[in-house]
Design a protein that fits this description.
The protein has 25 helices and 6 strands. By secondary structure, it is mainly alpha-helical. The chain has 2 domains: 322 residues, Na+/H+ antiporter like fold (Up-down Bundle), CATH 1.20.1530.20; 143 residues, 3-Layer(aba) Sandwich (Rossmann fold). It is globular, with a radius of gyration of 24 Å.
């Protein structure tokens, strides 16, 4: 990639970061400005963008629980929303066709239906990026949003199949045999160590999956997702996921830049795209009421709806195929690209305040309360504890064992992932399953008995949200946090943390203290 691409992407990503917007907003703007400046996209840009999407689908697969994916609430909610959105949007497009004389709205009924279908998807790239930045992939609303995206992707694959008339080869049934390779894949991953072989192994499977699927005339992207699902839940799958994160994020920058090269928009296209963007709150409300109707908790319904209230890169794929088949004009591909860009900006900005909005408006949301599935209620009692450790990764687990020596029986861990929580419980660790971002979790906790809450989480955004939740519940005890950098320490302390431990800077201190015991024992 030319240095000009890297320079412009960095400048606009940097500017977006300085005004507290996600850098992806800057990358999207950079793509349109490069195109408007007459810069010609290099062939490598599209290749790297495709690689970013492939790695994203593979890493999504690494986090999927297939049994959760088959929940009736999930697939029924997805298709009810897609159908409901098309029923709402289609008459609006038909009305514009009947009343506006502009050539953009010289549409047949079938063309209007394709456009409505393209806008029924939500952005996998945007949602996953937001969840990763907030360390919420394993939260209930994160699981729900990702599950909806996967079912939407399945709908997109079915559309591409019927639209192209290309049927899978009979050899496609042989792909079922991939499941029997899982033990071999597990053994190879375990034997790859912890160095450069781990990400290389990930690239091999992420790129090999699509090749296998395309050999039997199936969509390659589905192959990346399936290969990730084969490794989900294996002992080193989390390490593999982390090793691919930086690569994925880097290649996805190329995807955001490439959106700007769809075509140069006219003023009319901008206005139509803006009009479609204004409809996003309706899409949000429809998601909220659908999730609420199928029995999900209000908070889960609200946060998932907020995540999914955007338009999708899969809508671009649907539109691109329709343009190739001469079903849609090229102008509508540009409009969908612009609307997708606007919607990503909308989602990225508004989700920053999602937890605060829910905490402040909880009473207003309660009027929509419905009987929900009891499995959604994960709050367990906290009795006779003085210290809570939120986040039981390596740092949290180490802190638990150290604190347990000084205050035996007074320490309790809080883990978001039910499977990990169960595993800790089997190890004899005092653990409860809960979401620290959830205001209702803190409202039910006996905070008057808790003297110290330790936030051992990888995401600064998540710790900021939890500190806000604790202040909202009038918690009067102490709060300690971990940070990777000095500026993060200052920010968290400014928000109300009593101490911020920089484990990169202070690991040497801990190492020395442990090592000195060797001399004292002589």
């Amino acid at each position: 990639m030319s240095i000009i691409w890297i320079l412009v992407a960095f400048i606009f990503g940097f500017i977006a970061k300085q005004i507290t917007l996600p850098p992806l907003v800057g990358y999207l703007i950079a793509g349109f400005l490069l195109h408007a400046s007459g810069v010609t996209p290099e062939p490598t840009l599209e290749m790297l963008a495709d690689l970013g999407i492939t790695l994203m689908l593979f890493t999504i697969g690494l986090k999927i629980d297939f049994r959760q994916l088959m929940r009736p609430q999930l697939w029924s909610g997805t298709f009810i929303h897609m159908s409901g959105w098309m029923i709402l949007l289609l008459p609006l497009i038909i009305l514009c066709t009947a009343t506006l004389s502009h050539s953009l709205f010289d549409l047949s009924l079938s063309q209007s239906a394709i456009i409505a279908f393209a806008f029924s998807f939500s952005s996998t790239v945007c949602v996953i990026k937001i969840l990763e930045d907030n360390a919420e992939l394993k939260s209930k609303h994160g699981d729900l949003a990702v599950g909806v995206l996967i079912w939407q992707d399945i709908a997109a694959v079915l559309f591409l199949f019927f639209a192209t008339g290309k049927s899978p080869s009979l050899w496609a049934f042989s792909l079922l045999g991939l499941w029997f390779l899982r033990p071999l894949l597990k053994r190879m991953m375990a034997s790859s160590g912890h160095g450069e072989l781990i990400p290389l192994y990930g690239f091999l499977l992420a790129l090999g999956g699509p090749e296998l699927f395309e050999l039997v005339d199936m969509k390659g992207d589905l192959g990346a997702l399936v290969m990730g699902m084969l490794l989900a839940g294996l002992p080193k799958s989390n390490e593999l996921y982390k090793s691919l994160m930086s690569f994925k994020d880097l290649f996805l920058i190329c995807f955001f830049l490439s959106i700007g090269f769809t075509a140069l928009p006219t003023l009319e296209m901008w206005l139509v795209a803006l009009g479609l963007t204004i409809l996003l709150p309706i899409k949000l409300l429809l998601f909220f009421f659908v999730f609420n109707a199928v029995g999900l908790r209000l908070r889960t319904s609200f946060l998932s709806a907020l995540l999914l209230a955007n338009y999708s890169e899969f809508g671009l794929i649907v539109a691109s195929l329709s343009v190739d088949q001469n079903w849609l004009s090229h102008e509508w591909l540009v409009i969908i690209a612009l609307s997708t860009t606007h919607s990503m900006v909308f989602s990225s900005i508004i989700y920053k305040f999602a937890h605060r909005i829910y905490a402040n408006k909880k009473d207003a949301f309660s009027r929509f309360e419905r009987p929900c599935d009891t499995s959604q209620q994960t709050f367990l009692p906290i009795k006779d504890k003085e210290v809570l450790i939120v986040g039981m990764g390596r740092v949290g687990k180490g802190a638990y064992h150290e604190a347990e020596r000084d205050l035996p029986g007074k320490i309790c861990g809080v883990e978001l992932d039910p499977k990990r929580a169960q595993g800790f419980k089997e190890q004899g660790i005092n653990i409860i399953c809960g979401d620290g971002d959830d205001i209702e979790f803190w409202e039910q906790a006996p905070l008057s008995d808790i003297k110290l809450i330790m936030l051992a989480l990888p995401s600064v955004n998540e710790m900021k949200n939890i500190i806000y939740q604790l202040k909202h519940t009038s918690y009067s005890g102490k709060i300690s946090v971990i940070a990777q950098y000095e500026d993060q320490q200052k920010e968290l302390m400014g928000l109300g943390a009593d101490i911020a431990f920089n484990y990169y800077a202070e690991v040497g201190t801990g190492f020395a203290e442990e090592s000195i015991h060797l001399l004292k024992g002589q």
